[in-house]
Amino acid sequence: MSLDLIPGGTIGILGGGQLGRMLALAAARLGIKVHIYTDSASPACEVAAAHTIAPYDDERALAEFVNSVDLITYEFENIPAPTATKLAESCLVRPGPNVLGVCQDRLAEKEFLAAAGVAAAPYMRVDDAGALARAIAQIGRPAILKTRRLGYDGKGQVVVREGADLAVTFRSLGGVPAILEAVVPFSKEISVVAARACDGAFAAYDICENIHKNHILKSTRVPAGVPMDIAVEAVRQTHIIADALDYCGVLAVEMFVTDAKSGAGQAFALCVNEIAPRVHNSGHWTLDGAITSQFEQHIRAVAGWPLGATERFVASKASFVEMENLIGEEVNSWSKVLADPSAKLHLYGKEMARPGRKMGHVTRLVKEPGLL
Amino acid sequence: MSLDLIPGGTIGILGGGQLGRMLALAAARLGIKVHIYTDSASPACEVAAAHTIAPYDDERALAEFVNSVDLITYEFENIPAPTATKLAESCLVRPGPNVLGVCQDRLAEKEFLAAAGVAAAPYMRVDDAGALARAIAQIGRPAILKTRRLGYDGKGQVVVREGADLAVTFRSLGGVPAILEAVVPFSKEISVVAARACDGAFAAYDICENIHKNHILKSTRVPAGVPMDIAVEAVRQTHIIADALDYCGVLAVEMFVTDAKSGAGQAFALCVNEIAPRVHNSGHWTLDGAITSQFEQHIRAVAGWPLGATERFVASKASFVEMENLIGEEVNSWSKVLADPSAKLHLYGKEMARPGRKMGHVTRLVKEPGLL
């Protein structure tokens, strides 16, 4: 294992939201400086040793940035791939820009998963309204039309129901290249948050069970209420994905647990929904509930350091960890959260509580008295 | 309880060392901005939203500082008391400047403890060599001569042994006002790290057992290996001290456990060595081993927020937490620490590993297999 960074060195982070902020805080604990590069004033800037606010295609700002750091990572997958590729010419970029090529494009992601032998929802490529009609004929309704690029938190997607006009539907997403996906009838949404080190070492956290509301993650409970064989299979698929991407860092794989029997006679089956090549909202519980947080783990991995332990604190059958997002006005409950001795409050330093904006989160280590 | 600060507000911190740095990181998690005021470039600056580097008596810099913050605290007790008093005229300063008056002067501290009814080592005031001779006649040798002001980590003190020339000894500390203290034969050194909220609420962590080397804290083990009645008494004395100071924030009280029988027939007795009106090195374990770290606890207290839970993680008879300082060159073991899955590494971002300089620390949650 090569230690590509030594304490006192600087990690450059592309993106300055709450994920960049929590990465910067984790880096600081390890004696590592952080330089945030972001296209607008953002929460991570105020906890970083340095920051640059400039467009992602500002060549001069990028050149100065790359000269000031020892290696580069990113906090979200929608930074322009050419930016990452250009930076990688003169600096270590981890995870590698190849990962962005897969994860920025839903079609490329589906093709990658199929090639890796990992199950995902049936899909078809949709480049125009005619292709949408052909896809609907094959996949049926309801189905979900998703733009290939720049979708998150439910943006860039629409459900195609019975009676919907297909030309109107296609135009409603801006007429851009898309895919049509079958609706998967699922019993649970889970995610696997895991890390792969540069030497191929792999470590997963306990499986997360997620509840979404208006397409935004509302809460996560760990461990997920799934049978052990499903948990093992979910980690195995995540491991396959990480290896196939030659991944370095923390990634999260969102999956549906379906109750449809598969050919192998299993009572449950898994269906990968999305790969997030970064630290992930469903892993925030690790800040308070695991020996190594996902943020420290990502810093360790991209620095070429050994991975930390992923064990959950108080990991008994009688306990679980619950993470709840504070979205929009919900952040106004902060003083109530502070008064609850079992709750850990995290706020991201954002000024405006716009609807749908993630303002902070709360973690609770819960013991079920009946099981003690 | 008045919430004197709301998320998004700014806490000013006097002092920029590792304690200020860890306070700033804790504040950031709670969505609070930090403005560090320090007289030289220091580790806390690079994780704070703002910093000022100026002498502690620079009136203009202080005026700008006070205008930029909502309240002020400090990370060490040797900031000039007039600075704190001046700032308190126009801003909340917590803990109050009265605390500095007591804790900056060993004589005032001894008199305060005596008035509070808390046992400390016998002492006498020493203003000149003649007074030293009179004090030695009463206290005997060996005894410890300590400057009244600006001592820490063994600086500003000397042991007066048999045969030592008293005039030379007095001059060796610079001829400044001092006290002579009896040597207390102790079996253990412990500390109580606790917090008092502005409304008088009080919460202590488990007792810390400390090992010093060359007068510098080397390691802390929690819980301390002392009988329950000693632990209860140590917390009681700390509570008395905090109340008597009308304290707001985290404080640490260092004590000796002696095996001399007291008049009350106890097998052990306690003797207060020093009050630290701030977060304390022996409380660093709380970052990894307690629900609320001492740094978050201090931020909560000075913000007028309710105190957090002080419970230790995995608090069973079979487990303890160990904190070891990385002093000077010991920091070069960082990569070994990273490879140990039971260890949590903390580095302070200091550039030069001078002998005696605290560069970082390591925490381990240890389970004794024999006791499981």
Structure description:
2 copies of one chain form a homodimer. Helix content of chain A is 27%, strand content 28%. The first copy, chain A, is of the alpha+beta class and 372 residues long. Chain A folds into 3 domains: 10-93, Rossmann fold, CATH 3.40.50.20; 122-182, ATP-grasp fold, A domain (Dna Ligase, domain 1, 2-Layer Sandwich); 188-371, ATP-grasp fold, B domain (D-amino Acid Aminotransferase, Chain A, domain 1), CATH 3.30.470. In chain A, strands 10, 11, 12, 13, 14, 15, 16, 17 and 18 form a 9-stranded antiparallel β-sheet that branches. The first copy, chain A, has a 5-stranded parallel β-sheet with strand order 3-2-1-4-5, with helices on both faces. In chain A, strand 12 (208-213) and strand 13 (216-222) form a beta hairpin. In chain A, helix 1 (18-29) crosses helix 10 (294-302) and helix 6 packs across helix 7. The radius of gyration of chain A is 21 Å and the shape is globular.
- The radius of gyration over CA of chain A amounts to 21 Å
Q: Strand tally of chain A, please?
A: 18
Name of the level-1 CATH class of the largest domain in chain A: Alpha Beta
Instruction: Find the CATH topology of the largest domain in chain A.
Output: D-amino Acid Aminotransferase, Chain A, domain 1
Secondary-structure blueprint:
The structure is a homodimer of 372-residue chains.
Chain A: E1 10-14, H1 18-29, E2 33-38, E3 50-53, H2 59-67, E4 71-74, H3 81-88, E5 92-93, H4 97-103, H5 106-116, E6 123-126, H6 129-139, E7 143-147, E8 157-160, H7 166-172, E9 178-182, E10 188-196, E11 202-204, E12 208-213, E13 216-222, H8 228-244, E14 249-258, E15 269-276, H9 286-289, H10 294-302, E16 319-327, H11 334-338, E17 343-347, E18 358-367
Parallel strand pairs in A: 1-2, 1-4, 2-3, 4-5
Antiparallel strand pairs in A: 6-9, 7-8, 7-9, 10-11, 10-12, 10-14, 12-13, 13-16, 14-15, 16-18, 17-18
Helix pairs in contact in A: 1-10, 3-4, 6-7
